[in-house]
Amino acid sequence: MKASVFIGTSLDGFIARPNGEFDFLPADGGEPHGYTEFIATVDAIVMGRNTFETVLTMSPWPYDDKRVVVLSSRPVDLSAAAGAKVEQMSGAPAEIVSKLAATGANHLYIDGGITIQRFLRAGLIQRLIITRVPVLIGEGIPLFGSLTHDIRLRHIATRQYPSGLVSSEYEIAN
Q1: Can you tell me the distance from the alpha carbon of 85 to that of 68, in angstroms, rounded to the nearest whole number?
Q2: How many angstroms separate the first and last alpha carbons of the chain?
Q3: Environment class of residue 115 by beta-carbon count within 10 Å: exposed (0-12), middle (13-18) or buried (19+)?
Q4: Which residues contact 117 (CB under 8 A, 6 or more apart)?
Q5: Does the structure show a pLDDT above 90 at 29?
Q6: Using CA atoms, how far apart are residues 163 and 166, in angstroms rounded to an integer?
Q7: E strands in 24-152
Q8: By C-alpha distance, which of 131, 105, 115, 112 is closest to 41?
Q9: 45-69 burial string, b = 16+ CB within 10 Å, else e?
Q10: Are 34 and 165 in contact (CB under 8 A)?
């Protein structure tokens, strides 16, 4: 099982403003920067409840027919995503990965700040693709939280785009 992150941040490392807004990110994702190619390799998208509620405000539904797994220990109203392949799970990251592997998923896209932090701390993410937007917002929701130990990364590639986006790809070093 492979788990990857593909996310945009401000240059100072925030994925959203303190109120959850991400209006500093380019509209519609900006210029092509690898997302289409990345999402084509994914079997399931795993996100927390807050990220799911944010995604519900997007039109059209951004994941086409991809399987979306919403993590929450409380009931989640999935009816707003009618027609989409959305389900709810709860449990520790290792349990979630095990359940998804048992259903044939091979590549997971982990999305949302808290979910990314939980899966990273559990040692379940192998690949990070972080696209930095050339803006400083000063405060907000950080991509990374506290860690109990260093997580070493191996740089794979960095690509720059005419708009100023800079995308870096890393593998978690063992």
Answers
A1: 6
A2: 16
A3: buried
A4: 144, 145
A5: no
A6: 9
A7: 44-48, 67-71, 86-89, 107-111, 127-133, 141-142
A8: 105
A9: bbbbbbbbebbeeeeebebeebbbb
A10: no
Count Cβ atoms within 10 A of the Cβ of residue 82 and give its class: 0-12 exposed, 13-18 middle, 19 or more buried.
Answer: exposed
Residues in Cβ contact with 170 at an 8 Å cutoff, skipping those fewer than 6 apart: 127, 128, 129, 130, 153, 154, 155, 156
Two tokens at 96? 């979630």
How far is the C-alpha of 71 from the C-alpha of 81, rounded, in Å?
15
Q: Return d(Cα 118, Cα 74) in angstroms, integer.
A: 18
Give tens-digit pLDDT for 131-163. 999 999 999 999 998 888 999 999 999 999 999
Q: Tell me which residue has tokens 């999402």.
A: 39
Give the domains, in start order, of the chain with CATH numbers: 2-164 (3.40.430.10)
Burial (CB < 10 A; 0-12, 13-18, 19+), residue 102, is: exposed
Q: How confident is the model at residue 74 (pLDDT cuts 50, 70, 90)?
A: very high
